Amino acid sequence: MRKTMVDVPAPDGTADAYLVVPDGGPHPGVLLFPDAFGLRPRIEEMAERIAAAGYAVLAPNLLYRGGKQEIDMSALADPDKRGELFGRIMPLIQALGSETITRDAEKYIDFLTAQDGVTDEPVVITGYCMGGTNALRVIEGLPQRVKAIASFHGGNLVTDQPDSPHLRVGAITGEVYFGHADKDHSITDEQIKVLEAALDEAGVTYRSEIYEGADHGYTMSDTAAYNEAGEQRHWENLFALLERVKN
């Protein structure tokens, strides 16, 4: 298995990314969109687990415009350091709108599918927290290049803004999966119902599930939000989706 850090040519610079390609192939491509804390050992571990099942995985730094992220995860327990961290990354997150992430994702897909051992076919995106939100934006913006997405504890899927992700689900031609945390400040029960109603009206193939007892960030074992049962359920649903859409 080939595991390496790579530099991906992106619209506004160079995005650092973690690439994992199994031996042999060619293998279907998967983009892994991290949470706000970016590339780190936990994300690399998750990418490798997906690759071990026979997929080529690229995990890009979605916030590359702010430079390479080097976040000390232990600092999150300190309120002052946590506040400083979010003060630095929130403007980058807020600047990553639908048009911007779609342009970026096109370059990520180009890079991944051009690698040796990777099929030149539509990819799947699995996203976490803000990565889950942006996965939805990308399948809406690039329906011919993304055949499915899985969004885990994704927030702000329904907002009152004109570019709210739920307003563009009619463009989706593939399958989508949502694993919502039931204790999530970034999406309410009412917003989930609005999202599901939009998906139903658009005729999208989807599954939307609540993970009971799980906090926002439940898949991330290097944070206080980690929920072991939720993480395991996430793997089961992600691999089931990958299997369903495999060509």
Assembly type of the shown chains?
single chain
Q: What is the CATH fold-level name?
A: Rossmann fold
Number of domains: 1
| Annotation, overall tally of beta strands | 8
What is the CATH architecture descriptor? 3-Layer(aba) Sandwich
Poorly predicted runs? none
What is the H/E order?
EEEHEHHEHEEHEH
Percent in strands: 15-25%
Average pLDDT metric = 95
Structural class: alpha/beta
> Which class in CATH terms?
Alpha Beta
User: What does the radius of gyration come to?
Assistant: 17 Å
Biggest β-sheet description: 8 strands, mixed
Shape: globular
Give the fraction of residues assigned to helices: 25-40%
> If helices are DSSP runs of H or I spanning 4 or more residues, what is the number of helices?
6
The N- to C-terminal Cα distance equals 22 Å
